[in-house]
Amino acid sequence: MFCCPAHRTAWHDRDKIRGRMLVPLRMAAQITRGGSRGDIEIGKKARRDAEHLERRWIAEDKAAGRMNPAEYMRRRYALGFGRT
Predict the structure, then answer these.
(1) Rounded distance between C-alpha atoms, residue 23 and residue 19, angstroms
(2) How many CB atoms within 10 Å of residue 24?
(3) pLDDT tens track of the chain, all 84 residues?
């Protein structure tokens, strides 16, 4: 999937850091349905913050010439990796 071990390691290191930031936001947004149920204020803020991070990371990756997440998932699925 990657051209060399260093790029694979860099991708996974970035994913680890990004995941720690994104997962709690996405979980809060999901539980509150994006701020339409339960704690509306937190749900809306979590959704906005998650989307902001995603847009920032997509732009950073594009500027750095990195593979985008859709291509990464296409390759994973082609190798037989589905949901875990």
Answers:
(1) 6
(2) 13
(3) 889 999 999 999 999 999 999 999 999 999 999 889 999 999 999 999 999 999 999 999 999 999 999 999 999 999 998 776
Helix, strand, coil share (%) of the chain residues, nearest 5: 75, 0, 25
**Residue among 69, 68, 22 at smallest CA distance from 47:** 22
Tokens at 27, concatenated: 């979980």
How far is the CA of 20 from the CAs of 28, 75, 78, in angstroms?
13, 23, 26
